[in-house]
Amino acid sequence: MYKLDLDTALVLNDVKSIKIKDNIKNILPDVLAHQIDSQILSRYFKQLDLNSTHKVSWDAFVDWTYAEGKSTITRKYRDLGSLVALEMAQFTKRTGVYPNVIICDSISFGILSASNRFRPVDKTDDVDYSGVPRKVGYFNGVAKVFVTNVMNSVENQGRIVLTYKGPSEAQAAAVYTPFIPVTLRTVQGAENNMVITNNAYSMAGFAITNSDLISGIYVNNINLPE
After folding, report:
1. 205 φψ region: left (φ > 0), alpha (ψ -120 to 50), beta (else)
2. pTM across the whole model
3. What is the dihedral of CA 99, 146, 24, 194, to 10 degrees?
C-alpha cells in the first residue's frame, strides 16, 4: 500500500481553480508511478546487502604522492567505468545474459557519468520528467542507466546495481504489478485545530524471482582528499 500526500497539490489546484477530482487521472498516475518506482528500485539495493549476491568494490581514494612518475590508487582500476564494463562481462559469464539495466544512486552516478563509455539521453529521447528515478543514459551502448534517490547509510559510499530485463517477466530478476489508484481520502484530525489531510492510496506488488540476475558494485571513499 502506497500513500501520497496531496495537500500541496490540492492547494495549487485550488489557486488555479482546477478540481483535482476532475483531473485525478491526469495528475496521479505519474506522481504515484515515480513514488512506487523509488520503492521498487530500493529493493534492488537491499539485495546487495545479502551475502548470496555477487558484488565487488571500487575505491575512489587517490594517494597523490607520486611514485615512478605515476599516481598510485588503492585499487586496480583507475576509473569506475572500466570496472563496470568488466563486471558486465563477468555477469554474462555467470548468467549467460548480458546486463542491460544499470541502477545508480546519485553519488555513484556522478562518477559513472564521467566515463567515456556513458552516453547521456539526448533530445530525441522522450524524457519529460526531471526528477528521480529516471533514465539518464546508456552505458557501453547496451545498458540503460537509471538514477534514483535511494540513500546509502554508509558515509562516502555509493552503490551500483547491474541487472537484466528480458522480453518477458520470466526473464528478469524481479516482477511487480502495475500500480492501481484505489482511493482519494480526506481525513480530519484532532491535532492542530482539525487539520484536513488529503491522501491518495495505491497498491502494488513486488518480488525478487531470480536473484542471480542482480550484481552490484560498492563505490567507496567518494570524497577525495583536498
Report:
1. beta
2. 0.74
3. 120
